[in-house]
Amino acid sequence: MLTRRDLLKKVGAITAAVGVAAVSRSTMAALPEPVLQQSADTMDPLIPNTGRPYNPVVTLNGWTLPWRMNHGVKEFHLVAEPVVRELAPGMKAHLWGYNGQSPGPTIEVVEGDRVRIFVTNKLPEHTSVHWHGQRLPNGMDGVAGLNQRAIKPGKTFMYEFVARRPGTFMYHPHADEMVQMAMGMMGMWITHPKEAHPHIDEVDRDFCFLLNAYDIEPGSATPKIMTMTDFNLWTWNSRVFPGIDPLVVRKNDKVRIRVGNLTMTNHPIHIHGHEFTVTGTDGGPVPASARWPEVTTDVAVGQMRQIELIADEEGDWAFHCHKSHHTMNAMGHDLPTLIGVDHSGLMQKINKLVPDYMVMGERGMADMTEMQMPLPANTLPMMSGDGPFGSVEMGGMFSIFKVRSNQAPGDYKDPGWYQHPAGTVAQEWTGAVPQLSVAPAESPETKVELKVKKPGAHHPH
Ligand SMILES: [Cu+2]
Fold this sequence. Notes:
Blueprint: H1 4-11, E1 14-16, H2 25-29, E2 35-37, E3 58-59, E4 68-70, E5 73-88, E6 91-98, E7 107-110, E8 114-121, E9 130-132, E10 156-162, E11 167-172, H3 177-182, E12 187-192, E13 205-214, E14 233-236, E15 247-250, E16 254-261, E17 267-271, E18 276-281, E19 284-285, E20 293-294, E21 296-299, E22 304-310, E23 315-321, H4 346-353, E24 384-387, E25 390-394, E26 398-404
Parallel strand pairs: 3-13, 5-8, 7-12, 13-16, 15-26
Antiparallel strand pairs: 1-2, 4-5, 5-6, 8-10, 9-11, 11-12, 13-14, 16-22, 17-21, 17-23, 18-19, 18-20, 18-22, 23-26, 24-25
Copper (II) ion binds at residues 234, 267, 321, 323, 326, 397.
C-alpha cells in the first residue's frame, strides 16, 4: 500500500497549490487539494492505492492526476490556468493547461466508478470541460451555453457522473473552444475495465498521448490562436522531437498505445519493425474478428485509436506521424524548391547586396541540420535530434520505440542506443562497382536561369 507521501514521490516534482488568489479560502477548504506538476518528463505509472485495482497507463511526457476517495466517490481537482510548457530543451511555450502543464494530467478510473471532478478556473476568461466520448447525464457534458453556464474566472464547478464504459477518452474546453484548444487545453481520460473483458486484452505496457499542434512564431512563446491549417509545431503531448521521450519496452511485451487527436488535421501514425492491430476507438473496444494488421493507422480529427502489438524485434524503431511536414519543427512553407538549381557564383553576388544571405536547399534540405545559422531565442531547429549514426533530421511528431531483451519489467528508463549485433548495420560497399554516369545531361531547355532581384528600386549595373 502506498502512502500519500510515496504517491507524491511517484508523480515527481508535484506541488500542492498555495495562495490561489482568485479562489476564496472557504471554497478551497471544501475541495481536494489540487496537485500540480512542474516537469514535462514521463512519470512512472500511478499505482492505485484506493478503489478497485487496475493496470495503470504511462502518459508520454505526462502524468496521472492523484484522487481523493470520499465516501466511495473518486474526487479529482483540475485547475485551468496559464502554464509554461517546455516543448523540447531550448524552447518554452506560454500555453493554457491544467494543473501546471499542457496537456492536463491523465485521469484514470475504473468502469462503474462514481467520479466527481472539481474544475477551478484561473484563466483570464470563462471555460468549461467537455468529457469527450463519455456516457453521462446531459447536464454534465460540458458544452457552455448548451449544457451549463460557463465557469467564470475565479469560480469552481463540480462535475459528477459514473464512468459507464471502459475505454480511452479525452477532455477539453467547450467554451471559446478554438482559442482554448489552440492554447493547449486538453487531457486524456482512461476508464479501465472492472473485470476481464472479452475485447480488452491484458497488456504489459500501456502508453497514451494526445496529438496537438501550435503555431508559434520563431522567437516568440505564445501560440497564434487564429491559425487553422498552417501550424509550425506538431506535437505529442505538447512536446516535439527530440523532446518526446522514447516508448521503452521489454522484448516480447504486449504493448498498447492509445493516441487521441485534438489537432485540426489527420495524422497517419506509423511504427517501424512491427505490425499492430487497432483494438479500440473512442467508441469502445474492437472485437478481435474486426481487427486487421497495419503498420500505419490514420487518426482523424477528434478520434482516438488504440493500437496493440507484440514487441518481438529488438532495436530502436522509429514511431512517427507519416506526414513528412509533421516531423519538422518551425519552418516556413513559402520557400521555392531549389534542388538541381545551379548556384555557382550566385552567393558572392548576393552577399554583396545581402551580407547574411545563405543559399538553402540546393542539394535537398539535409544540410539544414549542419548549418550554423543563427536562430532567434526560444526556437528549435527545423530538424535535429542526434542518433548514434549522425543527425536523425527529424522534429515534431517523432519518437523511438525501444525494444530491449534486458529491460526489466516495469522499467521505463531510456536504455540508451541499441547495440547492433556485428554485421547487421547497412554500410558502404567498398568492392568494385559498374561505371555509372552521375551528372544529368545538360540541355538548353532544362538549364534554369536565376535572376537576382536587388533590394531597392534601381537596376543592377
Ligand atoms: Cu501528422
